[in-house]
Each structure stands twice: as structure tokens, then as C-alpha cells.
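Obj: model holo form, ligand = 2-acetamido-2-deoxy-beta-D-glucopyranose.
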Amino acid sequence: MEETSLLLILLVSGGLSTLPPHSREYHFVNQLMNWTEAQSYCREHFTDLVTIYNSNINQLLFSMSPRINDWAWTGLYNDRYSWKWSMERKLFYVGSTHEFLIWANGQPDCAYANEYCVALQGQTQMDDRPCGDSYPFLCYNAQNTSYILVMESRSWSAAQSYCRTYHTDLTSIRSKEEKSNITLTLNGSGVQYVWIGLYRDPWAPWSDNTTSTFTNWKISEPNNYGSTQYCVTMNLMAGIWSDSGCELRYNFFCFTAVTKQTVVKMKLQSEADMHSTEIQQQVSQQLSGLMLSEGLTDFRIRWRKVQSYRDDQSKKQDVDGGCKTEF
Ligand SMILES: *[C@@H]1O[C@H](CO)[C@@H](O)[C@H](O)[C@H]1NC(C)=O
Ligand SMILES: *[C@@H]1O[C@H](CO)[C@@H](O)[C@H](O)[C@H]1NC(C)=O
Ligand SMILES: *[C@@H]1O[C@H](CO)[C@@H](O)[C@H](O)[C@H]1NC(C)=O
Ligand SMILES: *[C@@H]1O[C@H](CO)[C@@H](O)[C@H](O)[C@H]1NC(C)=O
Ligand SMILES: *[C@@H]1O[C@H](CO)[C@@H](O)[C@H](O)[C@H]1NC(C)=O
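Output (holo C-alpha cells):
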């Protein structure tokens, strides 16, 4: 009697594109490098500088490092040029030099690590300011393409709400024409600072382009002391963080994204007709439920028909060859 069995193949993998933190391996690198060198080193030898998503990871990094009175780089940095327009909400890099978006002397300086919104200063040049400061502001109205100077002092986000309620949004400055119209609107108003729609997210993203809300700052950090501290270190005696000058040389933490794939072959014995697609679907569904309840979300289930061992010895090769491990 010909014996045919079915193999149910389960591919289980962890740590694909979404990179859940638990599928990372961490490394302490005992070499002194500046932040950009450390980043290159991690990207070359591992995956990237670390992102610290929670206190467990912070504790893990702390426990794997030596107890020396020094600091080590993490993947956190403060990108002074990662600006967005309120109206578009997507990244719009404003470099240190630009045709018509001109920073006032020494700006942006992210003073005290607390300046994430932009005002026009002296009516023409940009200055990053604390978002909580109250200034008059410039709205843009898309219906009649006009710029409206509101002479009430508000915080940046209150100004944004006002503009969104009564007009379109806080103004962008996307062309020379727009810039000169704005200059005209402001002319004679006497305003010293006026909010425009430029802002950025503090401390986001990390070197690997993911974001995390967890922080473990030392008291009174970050402070961007001397407006020179845009990269973040962990203290190796205490596990707490500080912003530091990116050009300084420290040890550092890297991670490797681990992609594990496990192939599970199951041989099922049943009175039921396992060749029936319906029954295969039922079994697959039950198995899926079981996997999900165990917290496994990244898996695939495949059925494979197998000739009986006795039936054809040479087919065995074929069966094994069918269970490819894919990375
Ligand atoms: C454009 O519309 C806004 C809102 O209605 C109004 O405040 C503003 O004065 C208008 N500007 C022009 C130039 O019509
Ligand atoms: C700005 O000024 C120019 C002329 O310099 C004009 O053509 C344009 O409509 C104005 N408005 C806006 C919204 O740019
Ligand atoms: C500002 O307005 C004054 C007159 O009110 C004018 O003389 C001057 O040229 C204007 N400046 C700009 C930059 O438009
Ligand atoms: C970083 O992530 C954002 C969205 O999360 C994406 O738009 C952007 O392209 C990414 N940048 C890089 C360099 O991967
Ligand atoms: C790190 O050092 C390299 C030279 O080895 C230099 O090119 C780079 O600008 C430095 N990075 C920082 C942030 O100072």
C-alpha cells in the first residue's frame, strides 16, 4: 500500500525590519573614537550604534561595560538641521547655509538643549528659540495666499493652533518670493522675534533611524553646555546619560540585529484526510493561534506533500531541499 504523508513546515523568524529590541545583540567596544567614527565602526562591524528603548536595555549595556570613571557613546544625537515645516510635517533639511533661509550669527545653537522652534529675528534671519517663549507670529492663509502677522504673543504651539484655526498654518518660507512677501508683511511692525512654521523633534531619531521615548539623563543634563554638545554618552559608573561634544573620543556601544529563523517540521497523524485543503487550513489556523498566543508574530506555515520514505529513497533529498532556510 502506498503511504503518503504530509509535512507541515513552520518558518519562525525574529528581528526582521521592525527590529523588536529583544532580537538585538549588544557590544561594548573598548576603543576611543569620536561619535561619527564610532558610528562608522558599528555600521561596519555590527549594525549600528545602540538605541536604548527601555531601562532593561540600559541596564544590560551598563552591566556589560567596565566600571570605569568614563563615558561611552550611544546612538543618540541632536541633529541641529533636521527641521520640518508645520504645514508639511515632513523633514526639510535646512543646512548651515541656504539661499534665502539665513540663520542669524551663531544659530541654530540649541541653547541649553532647549530650542526646537524657529523665529525670524530682526525680521529677516532665523534663530532657534525655546518653543515655550511667547512671540508674535506669522500665519499663512492658502485661500487668499496672504501672510497675516498676528501681534499677540503666544508660544509656538499656541501660535500654530491659532493659525490652523483661523487661517491655514504657521507660515513656511519656500521661495525667494515668499521670503520677500514676508519681509514686506513685517516691514514697519517693529517685531523683534516672530514665530514661523519651522520646528524639529528633540533628540530624534537615533543613529539607526528608530525612535525611543526612554531617557535616563543625569540631573541637569542635557544642557548643550557651551552649545557644543550634540551627541550622547552613558556614564560607565552610573548608567546615566549626558550630552557631550561629538568630537570627543570615548568607548561606545554597538548592536547587531539578530535574524533567527527556525524551521519546524511536523508530522501529523490523523484519521482525517490530511490532503483536504479545508482540513489543512483548519490545522494551520489552530497552529497560528497557538503561535500568536506564545507571542510569536513573524512566521509562515507551509504544507508539503512527501512521498513515503519506503516509496522512494531518492525523494528524501528532495524533501530536505524543500525546507530552505531563508535569511
Ligand atoms: C485673507 O483671509 C484672511 C482670513 O479670512 C483675512 O484675515 C485676511 O485679511 C485676508 N487677506 C487678504 C489680503 O485678503
Ligand atoms: C508674493 O509676491 C509676489 C510678487 O513679488 C506675488 O506674485 C505673489 O503672489 C505673492 N504672494 C505669495 C503668496 O507668494
Ligand atoms: C519698509 O517700509 C518703508 C516705508 O514704510 C520703506 O521705505 C522701506 O523700503 C521698506 N523696506 C523694505 C525692506 O521693504
Ligand atoms: C528614517 O525613517 C523615516 C520614517 O520613520 C523615513 O522616512 C526615512 O526615509 C528613514 N531614513 C533613513 C535614512 O533610513
Ligand atoms: C571624527 O574624526 C574624523 C577624523 O578621524 C573627522 O573627520 C570627523 O569630523 C570627526 N567627527 C566629529 C564629530 O568631530
